[in-house]
């Protein structure tokens, strides 16, 4: 397990994912009844962007946040979803004791969800890496209605679904260290939809090879999915030297009208985050609503 999200915290993929995740949470909160937020690969929860980025051999590594949150932090947002996201990032910095206008801290998905949660909402955060799980548990020790579990997130799906609330937003956001990660996601979704077909499942994925994503979509369609949409942001075209050219978020059972909120913010994200020629953004239905 060599993946360290600290290097990537606040990069363009985080901005894209967290803007959309926050809107999913807001859409779930359109109903008064509480829900479970289940994060299968939670990480450390929050990151200090001022800490040196050091590789195991002691060499320094350039952080990725300047090309992500750094590009939108000082901007006046044009859309409500981006304004909502930036306000939450400021709240996290205030909570961590940052002073002045500079960005010092960046929240992972656990803190995005916790800062947005209502008293009736509940969080379960799964993290397999022992040191990250320990840091996560320490960070959330005093937070009500938050359970941190040092366990494989795919096992967490079996342990916590269906939830007593009968409502859930599940974030599946693995590090994609394994070539078999897409197969694991497919298996996890197939099993979870059998146990809890009404859950909202959000899956982040990298767009490194279009054929791999298309193969995943084809396999998912064979499951006879309920309504499912996906949004993608590509910051550079195929000819670019940028390593991670794009990413996406697949949403099964999307909340009502969430596609409108996503389409409202994608052009703004594209404008700020594009890195090279060929950048693009889209939001489309994989399985249309009936």
Describe the structure.
With 290 residues, this protein is α/β, with parallel strands linked by helices. The protein has one domain (5-287): Rossmann fold. 37% of the residues lie in helices and 18% in strands. Helix 7 links the parallel strand 6 (168-172) and strand 7. Helix 1 (12-28) packs parallel to helix 4 (109-116), helix 3 (80-95) packs across helix 4 and helix 7 (181-195) runs parallel beside helix 8. The radius of gyration is 18 Å and the shape is globular. It starts with 11 loop residues before the first helix and ends with a strand.
In short:
With 290 residues, this protein is α/β, with parallel strands linked by helices. It has nine helices and ten strands.
Q: Largest beta sheet, briefly?
A: 8 strands, mixed
Counting DSSP E segments of at least 2 residues, the number of strands comes to 10
Spatial separation of the terminal alpha carbons: 42 Å
Q: Quickly count the domains.
A: 1
The rough form would be described as globular
Q: For the record, what CATH class applies?
A: Alpha Beta
- Strands side by side in the biggest sheet: 5-4-1-6-7-9-8-10
Query: Mean of the pLDDT scores?
Result: 93
Low-confidence stretches: none
- What would the CATH topology be? Rossmann fold
């Amino acid at each position: 397990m060599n993946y360290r999200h600290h290097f990537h915290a606040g990069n363009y993929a985080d901005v894209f994912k967290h803007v959309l995740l926050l809107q999913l949470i807001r859409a779930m909160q359109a109903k008064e009844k509480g829900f479970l937020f289940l994060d299968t690969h939670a990480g450390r929860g929050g990151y200090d962007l001022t800490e040196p980025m050091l590789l195991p051999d002691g060499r320094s590594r350039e952080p990725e946040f300047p090309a992500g949150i750094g590009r939108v932090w000082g901007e006046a947002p044009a859309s409500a979803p981006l304004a909502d996201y930036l306000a939450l990032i400021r709240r996290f910095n205030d909570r961590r004791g940052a002073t002045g206008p500079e960005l010092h801290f960046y929240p992972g998905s656990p803190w995005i969800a916790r800062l947005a949660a209502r008293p009736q909402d509940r969080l379960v955060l799964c993290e397999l890496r022992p040191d990250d799980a320990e840091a996560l548990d320490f960070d959330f020790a005093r937070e009500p209605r938050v359970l941190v579990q040092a366990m494989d997130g795919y096992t967490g799906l079996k342990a916590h679904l269906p939830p007593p609330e009968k409502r859930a937003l599940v974030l599946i956001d693995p590090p994609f260290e394994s070539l078999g990660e897409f197969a694991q996601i497919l298996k996890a979704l197939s099993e979870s939809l059998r146990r809890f077909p009404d859950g909202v499942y959000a899956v982040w994925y990298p767009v490194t090879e279009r054929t791999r994503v298309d193969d995943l979509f084809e396999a998912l369609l064979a499951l006879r999915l309920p309504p499912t949409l996906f949004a993608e942001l590509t910051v550079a075209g195929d000819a670019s030297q940028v390593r991670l050219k794009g990413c996406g978020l697949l949403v099964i059972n999307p909340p009502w009208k969430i596609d409108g909120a996503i389409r409202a913010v994608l052009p703004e994200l594209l404008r700020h985050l594009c890195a090279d020629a060929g950048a693009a953004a889209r939001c489309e239905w994989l399985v249309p609503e009936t």
